[in-house]
Amino acid sequence: MAHNGLARTIFPVHTMFDGETVFAMTTRGVDASVDLAGMWAAETLAYAIINAVTAAESAGAVPAARDWTAPPSQ
């Protein structure tokens, strides 16, 4: 279910070339249904992707999202 977080933030997702895999584990600290845990896993993964994209820095000639600026308002 966490893969839904990928689909919410990446387009296109699940192509033949991206090879994403999601692993999850639990400490049994909270008693919750599988549906609730899956929903939070998807939300957490979507948040992590957005955070990673906005925090990333450019790598050589490859620009990062923070390098792109909106044109000035007129």
Element layout with pairings:
Layout: H1 3-9, H2 34-55
Structural summary, described in words:
The chain is mainly alpha-helical and 74 residues long. Helices cover 39% and strands 0% of the residues. It contains two helices and no strands. α1 packs across α2. The longest helix has 22 residues, at 34-55. It starts with a helix and ends in a 19-residue tail after the last helix. The model has no long low-confidence stretch (mean pLDDT 85).
Instruction: Give the strand tally.
Output: 0
| Share of residues in strands | under 5%
The average pLDDT value, as a whole number, equals 85
Extract low-pLDDT stretches.
Answer: none
Class derived from helix and strand content: mainly alpha
Number of helices: 2
Overall shape? elongated
Which radius of gyration do the C-alpha atoms yield? 16 Å
The first-to-last residue Cα distance is 44 Å
Q: Largest sheet at a glance?
A: none
The residue fraction in helices comes out at 25-40%
Give a summary of the structure in a few sentences:
39% of the residues lie in helices and 0% in strands. It is mainly alpha-helical and 74 residues long. The longest helix has 22 residues, at 34-55.
Based on the model shown, name its key terms:
single chain, 74 residues, mainly alpha, 2 helices, 0% strand
